[in-house]
Amino acid sequence: MSLPRAVGRFIIVGSQVMSKAFVQAYKQMIANAAQQSTGQAAASKSSTAVRRGEMTIQEAGSILNIKPESLEEGELEKRFQKMFEINDPKKGGSFYLQSKVFRAHEKLKSELDQKIQEQSPAKPTSSP
């Protein structure tokens, strides 16, 4: 086989392989986009909070070792006090970790207050 013929064959085979790979990658991109659009609505609230620098509910629960689904005010306060005391800088703790604990408590407390408001029926206002 001559050199020009081998180079030509190499170019043809290479372009066939590249075109097949491109088509396959394009199909995968379309499939990923379709799959992502279905899960995007659920993740949009969480990703918005992360972009703004806010702590997510899952992260707050992880910091205080509380499951956000089974959130109770007494348990929240107990865990907060314990973690806040452990991370007190005056006792050799970390101010950064203490602030993370505080922000986690703040986030879970607001979530708990929101749940309580949603569960309690709206009180009718009496007009004179």
Give the helices and strands, then pairings.
Layout: H1 3-51, H2 57-64, H3 73-86, H4 95-119
Subcellular location: Mitochondrion inner membrane
Membrane topology: Peripheral membrane protein
Family: Belongs to the TIM16/PAM16 family.
Account of the protein in words:
The protein is mainly α and 128 residues long. It has 2 domains: 1-53; 57-119, DnaJ domain (Helix Hairpins). Helices cover 75% and strands 0% of the residues. It has 4 helices and no strands. The protein has helices spanning 3-51, 57-64, 73-86, 95-119. Helix 3 (73-86) runs antiparallel to helix 4. The longest helix is centred in the first third of the chain and has 49 residues, at 3-51. The radius of gyration is 28 Å and the shape is elongated. The mean pLDDT is 83. InterPro entries: J_dom_sf (IPR036869), Tim16 (IPR005341). Its main location: mitochondrion.
List the defining traits of the structure above.
single chain; 128 residues; mainly alpha; Helix Hairpins; 2 domains; 4 helices; 0% strand; elongated; Mitochondrial import inner membrane translocase subunit tim16; mitochondrion inner membrane; ATP hydrolysis activity
Question: Short description, anyone?
Answer:
This protein is mostly helical and 128 residues long. It contains four helices and no strands.
